[in-house]
Amino acid sequence: MRKASYTDRKLTVEEQAIAEKYFDLVKVFLYKKYYIYYDQMIDDISFAYIQAIKKYTDYERLHCYKIETIIYKSLEGAAANYFRKRNCLKRKPQRDIISYDDKKIECSKVVTQIEKAHSYNIEKLAISNLMLYDIFCKIQIERQKRIIIMLIEGYKKVEIQRYFDITYYRLQKEIENIRKIVNEMYSDN
Hints:
It contains eight helices and no strands. By secondary structure, it is mostly helical.
């Protein structure tokens, strides 16, 4: 997607004067519609406000509208984007599994990078890395390794099922086989 010409440049003197004159529109917009989110949204909305002013001065075809209209529509779009970004589903591992974001784990080489260990301390994180390394060395089937990685990354079982184009029953069998291997490794026999 091509960037617009006005996005990377600074405000001109004329645009600065316009921005100072109409900045009350931002406050009115936020107080009128999104008062409880004022502190969180002010940065995103202000950025959209500045971009709207640049857009209005750059494009002659917009001069048939009032500048207030252009600003208001841009602020509405920024507010919608803010809530879309805020409410979108984030991929999160379930059942307190540590997330190894975009890292491939191989038997020969396990790259351990201590991330923000929320409730985990460093010892627990190191132990979980070693356990994961042992599990990957023991499992021979690549599909099972990929299933483990996808579960750690937070994929849902339905997504994994679609990715491998297998039935739910087959996925459950694969997970059951992985559990058997893990139970064999860590049982007290």
